[in-house]
Design goal:
This protein has helices spanning 83-86, 101-105, 130-135, 163-170, 191-194, 212-216, 268-272, 320-323, and strands at 2-4, 14-16, 69-70, 78-79, 115-120, 126-129, 140-147, 152-162, 178-183, 207-211, 221-226, 229-230, 240-242, 255-261, 296-299, 310-312. The chain is an alpha+beta fold. Strands 7, 8, 11, 12, 13, 15 and 16 form a seven-stranded mixed beta sheet that branches. Strands 6-5-14-9-10 form a five-stranded mixed beta sheet. Strands 1-2 form a two-stranded antiparallel ribbon. It binds ligand MTE.
């Protein structure tokens, strides 16, 4: 994984590390004298995007991104998906079910104040407010593939913290077998929640879930930014989950609740069409969705219209070495 340096004189300092340690190496914002980013906003209360890595006295820093690539072992170089695509081609049905709608219809979305409640089967329930999201945990940059069940994919440089760190802080009880995630419910702000057609017929709030051992896997990330900046509203501001070995619909956006529970929690797409969307949703080229073959995918890159960018899909989206053991002995056709 590529870790970005944020030294103040460095405009382009970065290094590419071996894929095997791409989640293991941490470049802590705190170590760099990072101050709570909430202070940078000067009281602004919307989801304006700003540079997460800059220090207040020297903002904005310059980060050249066009030459960034990374090379998973034994594979061709992968190109980062341009920021312009990542923030304009979205699934966020609360702001409309068309790919271009979230970017258009989420502007002005208020993220400060924010409240993320950690509750349920834990010894230490927590409430994280807006500033806490950026200052309670060690932030790092991670470049992950994002694979949508609709068979398109991107390569995204996220910023965030390990979900495992949050789990440890909450101290789950012995009854905590699953985590149930919930997106903000605010029909006044989210047009898809008040207009059923725009919202794709979903009953909101959007819900997702993970088994606790999945949540503890070092790859599971709570993201607060991408491309060196805070998350834009359309990508799930101010905080979203990123589970790179699962289809994108597991990566729930604009999270306000994480509840530790004993039984497998209900999840939005599974409620809507259980035969199409399972609870596990691990990327699997051998198990097709009824409407989309999962054998290959269209990688969204800078490629022009004649460049199809069609690539073979990898089991667990290429992260099998890190996560396959979570599912040993399970029939992945049944638990799709
Ligand atoms: N989270 C919420 N709350 N609502 C959504 O509609 N869509 C999911 C996921 N998280 C969605 C969501 C789907 S289907 C995908 S593929 C990813 O977000 C897309 O993330 P992106 O727009 O940042 O690429």
């Amino acid at each position: 994984m590529l870790i970005k340096s944020t030294h103040k004189n460095a405009t382009k300092e970065h290094q590419i590390t071996d894929e095997k340690i791409y989640y293991g190496r941490r470049e802590m914002l705190k170590n760099m004298g990072f101050l709570g980013v909430g202070t940078l906003l000067g009281g602004g209360a919307n989801a304006g995007v700003f540079d997460l890595f800059s220090r207040d006295e020297e903002r904005p820093s310059v980060f050249q991104r066009d030459d960034l690539t990374y090379k998973p072992e034994g594979q061709a170089l992968e190109e980062l998906t341009p920021e312009s695509k990542i923030i304009s081609h979205n699934n966020f049905y609360e702001f409309g079910a068309q790919k271009n709608q979230p970017a258009e219809l989420s502007q002005g979305f208020k993220v400060d104040p924010w409240k993320l409640a950690i509750s349920g089967e834990v010894e230490k329930p927590l409430i994280l407010d807006y500033d806490d999201l950026y200052s309670s945990f060690d932030l790092e940059e991670r470049i992950y593939r994002l694979r949508c069940v609709e068979a398109w994919s991107m390569v995204v440089p996220w910023i965030g913290f390990s979900l495992a760190d949050l789990v440890k802080k909450a101290k789950p009880t012995s009854k905590a077998n699953y985590l149930a995630f919930e997106t903000l419910y605010d029909p006044e702000q989210m047009i898809g929640q008040r207009n059923r057609r725009l919202g794709g017929g979903i009953n909101y709030p959007y819900l997702e879930g993970l088994r606790i051992d999945e949540a503890m896997n070092p790859l599971a990330l709570m993201s607060v930014g991408l491309y060196g900046k805070t998350l834009p509203p359309q990508n799930g501001a101010p905080i979203r989950l990123v589970v790179p070995w699962k289809y994108g619909f597991k990566s729930i956006k604009s999270v306000v609740g994480i509840k530790f529970v004993e039984k497998q929690p209900p999840t939005t797409w599974n409620i809507l069409a259980a035969n199409e969307y399972g609870f596990y949703a691990n990327v699997n080229p051998k198990v097709d969705h009824p409407r989309w073959s999962q054998a290959s995918e269209r990688r969204i890159t800078t490629g022009g219209i004649f460049d199809q960018n069609r690539i073979d899909t990898q089991p667990f989206n290429g992260y099998g070495e890190q996560v396959a053991s979570l599912y040993s002995g399970m029939n992945l056709r049944k638990y799709y």
